[in-house]
Request: fold
Amino acid sequence: MSDKMQDDYSYLLEAGSGRLSHEEFTPHFTPKEMLAMGVFEGKYMNDCRQEFPESWFTDAKLSDTADPDLNYFGIKSRQPLSEWQRKGWIIQPDPRGWFQWYCRYYMGRRLPGVDDKQIKRWKGFARHAGQVRKNCQQNDLSCRPRQRQALLQWAYDCMI
Reply:
C-alpha cells in the first residue's frame, strides 16, 4: 500500500477482522462506526481508503478540508499532526497515530510491542470518561462536548 504518508507499506493480517485479541482492549466503537458518527473533522482517512474495507466509508463523514461540523459533537477536536509528532505521540509504523493503529489492529494486524504501547495509551485515556461522569448529568450530551468528542475518537463510549 502507498498513500501520502507511507510508501510500499504492507503487513500481515494475523487475526480475523474485528477480533480484538487483547483482553484489556475493549473499544466501544468499531472504526466504521466512528467514521459514520463523525471524527477528526472528516479529514483523517482521505488518501488511504484503499487499505480498508469500502463498507467502512459508506456512511463516513469525510471532507477534503477539516470541517468541525462533521464531528459528532460539531466542535473542533484535533491538534495538527505536527503537534502529535512534536510531543512524541506517533508510534511507528502508523504515521497517522492511534486511530490508524486501531484500524489496522481491527483488520487483524498484530505487532507485539506496538500493540502493547497503543493499548496502554488507550487505557490511559479512560480518565476522560471519569471526568465526564463526575461533572455531567447522565445523558447530558451538551456537557463537555470537546471531551466527549475526544472519547469518541479513542473509541470510548461518549454517550455516558
About this structure: Residues 3 and 48 are 6 Å apart (CA to CA). The two ends are 38 Å apart (CA to CA). The mean pLDDT is 93.
